[in-house]
Predict the 3D structure of the following.
Amino acid sequence: MPKGYSGRATKVPAEKAEYTAAVRYRDGSSEIFRVKNADNLADARATVQAQLMNIHALLIARRRSSC
């Protein structure tokens, strides 16, 4: 065995998901954002809500990984 090799598998951190956020504002305008490095759907939603104001409607969807 190579020096420093313990024989144990090391944990590789799971890749964080990407989400798409569709936002409609109170004035009727809308935008689409990409949310990177969110832990989960709730984290993606909280990130968008913390960054934007005057949101009327918010839709979040997980992006498919490009294989």
